[in-house]
Amino acid sequence: MDEDIAIAVGRTVQRYRLRHDPPMTQSALAQAAGLASDQRISNIERGVTQATIPELEAIRKILGVPLRLLVGDETDPTDRVKRLCELEEQAHQVAINADDEAWTEFIRDMQHALRRARTLQDQRQEHREGKKRRKER
Predict the structure, then answer these.
(1) Nearest CA among 77, 84, 83 for reference residue 112
(2) pTM above 0.85, yes or no
(3) Which residues contact 42 (CB under 8 A, 6 or more apart)?
(4) Where are the domains of the chain?
(5) Residue 83 reports pLDDT greater than 70
(6) Which of 47, 52, 100, 126 has the most other CB atoms within 10 Å of its CB?
(7) What backbone torsions phi and psi does residue 23 show, to the nearest 5 degrees?
């Protein structure tokens, strides 16, 4: 995964952790999400390590936010598409082994976020092409 994407996802996790009512410590989030340690949350928030699908799912549930808000809102739409494609593939592999309503909802959220990112990417490309055509006139 691109380092910039990991940093953006980490900042978003941190932002929502601190906005939680009441704000959560890294330790409290790690414990509530069933992660091994608060160091894992720290590493995710600093972009040192990539969050896995199960970690993102647990974090989003605890923080009460849709997956699409955790995955790259601060990054370029092209980067979001790359990250979402990676997550979609991971989710597909996990879903093969799990027949759970929560996973179905998670995958739907992720697919929605992917469609939105692709739409934004397409709009951005159309805008660039329009500017280029206007310049050429």
Answers:
(1) 84
(2) no
(3) 26, 48
(4) 3-136
(5) no
(6) 47
(7) -55, 145
